[in-house]
Amino acid sequence: MNYILEVNNLSKEFNNFTLDNISFRLEPGYIMGFIGPNGAGKSTTIKLIMNLINKSGGEIKVFGLDHIEHEKEIKDRIGFVYDESHYYENLTIKQMKSIVSGFYSKWDDNIFNRYMREFNLNPKSKIKTLSKGMKTKFSLAVALSHNADLIIMDEPTSGLDPIFRREILDILHNIIQDEHKSIFFSTHITTDLEKVADYITFINNGKMVFSRPKDEILDNYAMVKGGTDLLNSDTRNQFIGLRETSVGFEGLTDNIDNIKKIFKDEVLIERATLEDIMFYIVRR
Ligand SMILES: Nc1ncnc2c1ncn2[C@@H]1O[C@H](COP(=O)(O)OP(=O)(O)OP(=O)(O)O)[C@@H](O)[C@H]1O
């Protein structure tokens, strides 16, 4: 299998944090969402992939090539959206574009100008006058204007209004219709991923939780609701996480058959959302 992005046993040691043996693979033609609570290590992983910081161990391959040995060639084919603005604030969009376009062999001004119009951005505006959302739009336009085969984004939809967020999701969805391109992005907005992601990689506290197809995850987990009278030390242990209120309990399971066997029809079993899954796994 030719993977567009392959991360194997990636580790990074900081003084107070360790990113520990992170592994996942992304095939051409798919969108992978990267999730985890604050401080899980998502930005660190993305910076490592982009070779902005040095890894302590492991291997990263992009387009089948080592990400350090072939950095220049790889970066030419990656559209990157970072969560902080890394542009010169005193330049206009047009001036900044002239600088960044020079880094890419397949830069296409027509595509860039189309996004400027679509995103309602004025090329004459200075970067420093742009709102957070407008800066993100500019970053996105740059990332999408050089025929990249892999789009990597660190929280691209944060700070964007729901209408534009939805437009972005449509754009991302259209990009992968070309089955050679893939998208990898971190986000806290799990409902966005429910709409567009094919795969979800979930990390918590620097460690892998899972990297699996989204549909498989959503089929595998379920929310169970029932009265607190059903709970005792045995039945409690059947749940990954549990929340009790005055009216009953709600718990996450990854073993629906087992729950059915134990509680029969005394509980309600509902589809879990990615947010439910993340919440209960992190709280555990
Ligand atoms: N340069 C650094 N030096 C020391 N520690 C760092 C450095 N960069 C990040 N960390 C630590 O690594 C951990 C993971 O941070 P990271 O930014 O990767 O998390 P994240 O999952 O992207 O979080 P968020 O969702 O809040 O953006 C944090 O504890 C952070 O303090």
UniProtKB/TrEMBL annotation:
ABC transporter domain residues: 4-230
UniProt key word Protease: no
Entry protein name: ABC transporter ATP-binding protein
Segment forming the signal sequence: none
Lineage, opening ranks: Bacteria, Bacillati, Bacillota, Tissierellia, Tissierellales
GO-annotated molecular function: ATP binding; ATP hydrolysis activity
Organism of origin: Anaerosalibacter bizertensis
Domain of life, per lineage: Bacteria
Keywords: ATP-binding, Nucleotide-binding, Transport
